[in-house]
Write a structure and sequence with these properties.
single chain; 641 residues; alpha+beta; 6-stranded mixed beta sheet; 5-stranded antiparallel beta sheet; 22 helices; 42% helix
Length: 641
């Protein structure tokens, strides 16, 4: 932990009370959207890199918690006063009607979308069943809508009190921010039950029939707009909502070596509004619809995802089209995006997983653009200019290389017409866009070690080039990886390295697919005295899997892959993203229909061939932790990192 943290906790009333419902609404007012009160007060002012208000109602009195990770150099006293200022403002003045409506729209949308998946729905129904009223999950939105502004204010006034608050401060000790954290706690009149605290689980869930979300490929209507943008439409009337997925070939592989981070800065600046609407106005247009808009930058792609209640789809599509046509690219927005990116890079320097992964991907890529990672470098992020952001957008956000999918409750004909009017008229640049250079696939022996004497653990990645997303052996590689280390419960790596030999507390293997290549790696977390032996054990298990797998292992992997496959499509959002990705990778149009049969058709010979290909290319070792180039522990090792 290298950045200071503040935790505030106040005792909250029990579930199903009017005060409890008011606090649930107030948590949304305080955080969770980009223009919520704490986000504007702390993130937009560059005082913090992360902020959350949590509330998880229980039968016994529970806790309302605010957590803030301050940026380097910002005193926690200042952060605490800002937080209390917002909490006390909620108790001193009533929410404006537009703010209350915006919050209720967000809650209604969350009620619909976050619980399309069976795991969330099952948890919430079980939670309310255990608390004696499973039907409450159906009534919660209606109850929240019945709250008055005065009830909400009075609840905030009663609950958010400094003399009834527990406070914890975690501050880094040492000048370089890399030593172990010191902990300072203060307690006021806190008397909550043992274990009460924040939770990531939501509490809003409808009682509704189970649906897998998996649909046949034939149900998708595919087409192309006049400017070349490819469209995939899947009407479904199960829920009164719609998910939109939009992909552009504008990822970090398009960054130049001295501007790594440009793709992410472009997306992060772009999403902050149009020329006509600044960040707050643009973002609140989405929030008024119970939605949000965010561009996520990957190695190859930028993904835009939005979800709307069905009645808001047309308005939401118009907002997205306006942004694509005329992004604001204001200088102050670039500086905000830059500050957040640099804060993230600062945090990554102290995270051994991040350090080892950066070493590994850049080591395997050998200068290929796939080694330009989305978060970039501090030098690259600091150097990006306004003109470079605009030029990158003009060069890469091409409609003729984009994929757009819409899944949910909409009228197909009307939506297709609107897409042509708003998206089909976006300008199409000359040329055909950039292609991916050939990815190096030959084996290379390379050891990259970042020695961190102050840490108590070692993170190890070992591997090399992997399969691209269209490789004929791709499915065989997925099944082989499931046997080797893809399962957290039963895998060769876990059984031998963790369970039998006790060399690691975590170990797994993974494939990272790209359109023109990929990465295959084994991840290990271990103690410094076990590092060398753990690497030797990894190499032994890789050699063993290349010799072949047993029939029983293959059947287990096939059962898992085919059984879990439908659960990957339990929401409109997951389906929409799948259709854009499958189109980008040019997977067969009957991919969903034939997946299970193709997995079941795999033989031990197929897996052996895939394993031989992957194992023969491994050779890059990336290590971060308190070890030297020989993987021997170094002096200064901390007992707990």
């Amino acid at each position: 932990m290298s950045l200071p943290q503040l935790h505030l906790m106040v005792r909250a009333p029990e579930i199903r009370s009017r005060e409890s419902e008011a606090l649930l609404l107030l948590a949304h007012v305080l955080s969770g959207t980009r223009t919520s009160r704490l986000d504007l007060a702390l993130l937009e002012t560059h005082k913090a890199g992360d902020v959350h208000a949590y509330y998880h109602p229980k039968e016994d009195p529970s806790a309302f918690t605010v957590t803030v990770e301050a940026n380097a150099g910002v005193p926690l006293d200042e952060i605490e006063e800002i937080v209390w200022g917002e909490l006390e403002r909620l108790g001193g003045e009533e929410l404006a009607p537009d703010a209350l409506d915006r919050t209720l729209h967000q809650i209604e949308a969350n009620h619909l979308f976050s619980n399309q998946g069976p795991s969330n729905r099952g948890f919430v129904l079980g939670w309310h069943e255990a608390h004696g009223d499973v039907g409450y999950a159906d009534r919660i939105v209606e109850n929240l809508r019945s709250l008055t502004a005065s009830e909400i204010r009075e609840t905030a006034e009663r609950v958010f009190r400094r003399d009834r608050c527990g406070i914890a401060r975690l501050e880094p000790m040492g000048g370089n921010g890399s030593a172990r954290a010191g902990v300072e706690t203060t307690t006021a009149a806190w008397s909550g039950p043992p274990g009460a605290g924040p939770s990531l689980h939501g509490v809003i869930c409808p009682r509704r029939r189970f649906r897998s979300g998996l649909t046949t490929s034939a149900a998708v209507r595919r087409g192309e707009l006049d400017n070349g943008m490819r469209v995939h439409l899947l009407p479904d009337r199960t829920d009164a909502g719609v998910a939109v997925s939009l992909l552009f070939e504008a990822g970090s592989r398009f960054d130049s070596p001295d501007r790594q981070g440009l793709a992410t800065l472009t997306a992060d600046t772009m999403e902050r509004g149009t020329s006509a609407l600044d960040f707050v106005k643009f973002t609140r247009r989405f929030e008024n619809l119970g939605s949000s808009f965010h561009l996520t930058t990957g190695a190859e792609l930028v993904h835009a995802n939005a979800q709307f209640l069905a009645r808001h789809l047309d308005t939401g599509l118009d907002l997205i089209a306006d942004l694509l046509r005329d992004p604001g690219f204001r200088g102050k927005d670039l500086e905000t995006a830059r500050a957040l990116a640099l804060s993230d890079l600062h945090a990554r320097r102290d995270d051994l997983d991040d350090v080892a992964e950066d070493l590994f991907f850049r080591g395997v890529a050998r200068g290929h653009p796939y080694g330009h990672l989305p978060h970039g470098t501090e030098e690259g992020v600091a150097a990006v200019t306004d003109d470079e952001v605009r030029a990158f957008h003009a060069r890469t956000y091409r409609p003729d290389r984009a994929q757009l999918a819409i899944v949910g409750d909409f009228d197909e004909d009307a939506t297709r017409r609107r897409l042509q009017e708003r998206f089909g008229t976006l300008p199409r640049p000359d040329g055909t866009g950039e292609t991916t250079p050939e990815f190096p696939s030959a084996r290379m022996e390379r050891s990259l070690v970042d020695t961190r004497p102050e840490k108590g653990q070692v993170k190890i990645l070992y591997g090399g080039p992997g399969f691209c997303a269209t490789d004929p052996d791709r499915l065989a590689g997925i099944a082989m990886n499931q046997i080797l280390g893809g399962s957290a419960i039963r895998s060769r790596l876990g059984t031998e390295i963790r369970d039998n030999r006790g060399l690691a507390y975590s170990v797994y293997s993974r494939n990272y697919e790209r359109s023109g290549g990929g990465f295959f790696t084994v991840h290990v977390g271990t103690r410094p005295e076990n590092a060398r032996e753990a690497v030797e054990a990894i190499r032994a298990e890789l050699a063993r899997v290349a010799e072949g797998v047993a029939d029983e292992e293959l059947r287990d992997a096939q059962d898992y892959l085919t059984g879990s496959f439908p659960l990957r499509f339990t929401t409109y959002s997951r389906l929409a993203r799948f259709w854009t990705l499958s189109a980008y990778y040019r997977w067969p149009e009957d991919y969903l229909d034939t997946y299970a049969d193709r997995v079941r058709a795999l033989t031990p010979v197929d897996l052996k061939r895939a394993a031989e290909r992957l194992v023969s290319s491994t050779g890059v070792l990336a290590v971060a932790g308190p070890v030297d180039e020989r993987l021997e522990p170094v002096a200064g090792t901390s007992p707990d990192g």
